[in-house]
Amino acid sequence: MATVEQVRAAALRLPRTEEHLIRDRVKFRVGRIVYLALSPDETTLGFAFPREERAALLAAEPDRYLPPVPSDERYNWLRLRLAAFDEAELTEIVEEAWRMAVPKKLAASVLMPVGPTLAELRAAAEVFAGYGAVDTGWERWAAETAPAADLADPAHRAALHRWLNSWGCRIRYPRPGEPDLMADGLAGWWQRHAAALPAVSLLKLTDQQIDRLADAYAELQALPVGPTRTLGPTAAAKALYALRPTAVMPWDAAIAKRLHGARDGAAFARHLRCGRAWAGAVLAESGLTEQRLPAELGRGSVPLAKVLDDYLYVTITAAG
C-alpha cells in the first residue's frame, strides 16, 4: 500500500517541485502547473495523465483508477487509489506525471528512458539485420586489430579511422604532407586513458567505471581531426565502442538528442547507465546470459551493447 509520505518523497526529489496546501489539499506543482494532488482524506491521488489514454486505463483497471472529478475532466488528469499501489508503482506514476509538467530537456536529464522489452529488441534486431552486410565493417576492424585493439599501434589507429568512416563519420584523411591530427591525437588520448577503460560487460559496469568512460569520451569528442574539425560526439561514442565493445553502448546525434537532450560527458554517462539497466532487464526477461542473448536474436557476431544500439537506431534514427 502506497502512503502519503511516499508520494511526498517521490515528488520532492524531482527538480522544481514545490509542495503547497491549497483549500485543504496537498498539491505538488512545478511553477503554476499542478501535477499531483491528494484528496482531503488522503486516500486518492490525482495526477497528470494524457487525457486521450484515460478511458482505456479506466476500463482496464477500474479497481485501481478513478476518473477525474467533473471539473477536472477537461484536463490531462486521472486519479488512483493509494491502497491499490506499491511504492515502486507509485514512484513511476509520480515521475511520469512530473515529466508532463517540465521541459523535455529537463525530464531527459533526470529520468531514465524506458528500455526495450525482449520482443521489441527481437523485432529491431530483425529489421537491422535486414539492412544487409551490417557487420562487414565491424568484422574487418576486429580482424585488423586482433587479438585486441591497441591505439599505440599506428596500424590500429588507421584501422579505426577507416572503420569510423565505414559507419558514416566522414572524417577526412590527411593529404600528402599534412600532419595526421587524428592519429597523433588518438595516440596521446590512448596513452592517458587506455589503462582506465574497463574491459567488462555493459551489465557489469560500475558507476565509477561509467564515470571514467564519460571522462574519456569527453576528451575524445573534442580531439582535433582536421584543421577545423573535432572528432565529435557520434564518432567518439563509436570509437569507444570499437575499443570496448562489450562495455559501451554507442549513440548518434538523433539518439542522444531524443534520450538525453545533450551530447556531453554527463549525457554519455546517463546513456551508459541506461544501457546497463536495459541489459539487466532484457537478460532477466530472457533468462539468457549476456553472451548468449545476441546469438538468440540473430546477432551473434556483436555484443549486447551493440544489439541495444541497433534497437535505438531502428526506433529513433531510422524512424526519423
UniProtKB/TrEMBL annotation:
SUPFAM superfamilies: YjbR-like
Short name of any one Pfam family annotated for the protein: YjbR
Record's keyword annotation contains DNA-binding: yes
Keywords: DNA-binding
Taxonomic superkingdom: Bacteria
InterPro entries: YjbR-like_sf (IPR038056), YjbR/MT2646/Rv2570-like (IPR058532)
Entry GO MF terms: DNA binding
Protein name as annotated: MmcQ/YjbR family DNA-binding protein
Gene source species: Kitasatospora acidiphila
Lineage: Bacteria, Bacillati, Actinomycetota, Actinomycetes, Kitasatosporales
